[in-house]
Amino acid sequence: MIHAQKQPFGDRAVTWVAYIFIGLFALACLYPLLLVVSVSLTAEHEVARNGYSIIPKVFTLDTYRYIFIQSGTSILRSYGVTIFITVFGTIGSLLVTSMMAFALSIKSLKYRNHIAFISNFTIIFSAGLIPWYIVCVNVFGIKNTLGALILPMMFSVWNMFLLRTYFANISASLFEAAEIDGANYFTIYWRIALPLCKTGMLTVGLMYALTYWNDWWHALIFINDKDLYPLQYYLFNILSNVNAISSGRIPTGAAASITLPAETVKMAVTMITIGPIMFLYPFVQKYFVQGVMAGAVKE
Amino acid sequence: MSSLLKTADTPILKKGFIYEMKKHSLLYLMCIPALVLLVMFCYIPFGGIWMAFTDFNVVDGIFGSEFVGLEHFEFFFNSSMGWKVIYNTLFINVFSIILGVIIPVTISIFLYEIGSKKYKSITQSMMFFPYFISWVVVGAILYGFFSSDVGIVNSLLESLGLDPIRWYSEPQYWKWIVIISNIWKWSGYNSIIYMAAMSNFDSSLYEAAKVDGASKFQQIIRLTIPMLKPTIVVLVLLNVGRIFYGDFGMIYGLIGNNPVLIEDVSVIDTYVYQSMRTLGFSYATAVGLFQSVMGLILIIIANRAAKKFNDGEGLF
Predict the structure, then answer these.
(1) pLDDT tens figures, B260-282
(2) Residue B296 and residue A125: Cβ atoms within 8 Å?
(3) Scanning A11, A169, A216, B216, which has its CA 20 to 30 A from the CA of B294?
(4) Contacts of B109 (CB under 8 A, 6+ apart)
(5) Cβ–Cβ of B197/A296 closer than 8 Å?
């Protein structure tokens, strides 16, 4: 029996190296996050004295209490902005994307390749940041509006093609039967295609939601109004001030006017930013894996 | 003769533009919201490219400002900063591509060798997680590592009896810190793509190799890697096509407004953003246009290469 034989030394070595390499790399991915959690739960004086540490030596919830109660409403407002753009952005994106994906999955649509080309071309060539910025600000007037945080990200060509592969897998005979019964294409899309593509919609919806939740770049470009800062941009502002002062090249007068947040506050704000992702991660991870795989097979 | 033409004509007429629009009107209507967004944010801005050849001022507008030809491009190529940002972009991207193949391929090959399902799924979840956090959060984590006073790295250096380093005022390390952060964030994601390719491999080949007495190491070198080659080539070519594009979010998220570090890790994208304020809209547009054109040329070449390599299957 093959099973009874002991594996040769070389093969066992490969297996051991595999276990060790994978284990170390996985730890390298988790360790920084544990560090953030730990520091956010440590007392400030302890961090200032002994530096960052993976185990909270003096455990406290004071930092979170401070952020939510003492520091006023600004962080809660940012949280609200982020939740608003994530919810409404994702719903809008799903509608816009799935309608086009469904239309392009219908093989009898004569100009589907033209529309696909119009979409694809935007991936391979773009006007660049400045013309885009000027059009957004001067023509559409989206500066300092919530629209600036939703509309530019609302349609992703990549996600559209991903969703199209899900629609294309539905048997065409189902659509034909509905057509004979007198259903129009919108009814077919709404009543038949969408319910059959729940997984695809969930996958693409989660990908959009992650994009909206993690976006701070559009806020950097378009938002000056502090009331409209999303959570990520709130964090970015804290960090980039710290960062600039650490360089040692900011004049002392200017540095003195910026109050540095405590180490624990920085990490607690980071935790608040990624908290919902960490919480949902175990449940949603498999949909992302599926999305990446579906995209990879397509390519 | 004329009757023949007629019979040939009728079906074409029947399938003409108007007929198609009527027949599938709802489907075309369903494409309109997405097409409007594409026109708004991708096609209308093409008009603004003209700014690259003028001295844009707000009063005269995009098409009324004075035409200056290629002046801005000349300035870009004659400035030391121009070459520096091109060099930085290529440096960061080339090493990200190389390490971005080696590490994810190693991960997926090793994951394949791991028998314990639990170990596999837990480690995979851990490695995929960095993909879910933004560059700003990665920047916050990096600060925990490299901060001069409280950072982990300096504590480690001190405990080894070495001098601490003021990382945030020493630009020479940061290209590599950026590259390693990039690999850290994307390796889990990329290894999933390679795992997807490996799940389609013919297992009978491995059975045959085992019967012939091939060791695991030989199977990896002779079977797995050659079979992964098409996937590797496609992913590398896709990245080569984007080699002139830097990751704005990555650079700004990690460096913030640090004036000392930004010079050494500034890529074309961040340079465009910065020069918009200091050197004007027209100049920044010209730099962006140079980047877009280089990107277009490279992606077309990469697509040709992919077709040659993959029997006619291009990148898009």
Answers:
(1) 888 889 999 999 998 888 888 89
(2) yes
(3) A216
(4) A18, B220, B224, B225
(5) yes
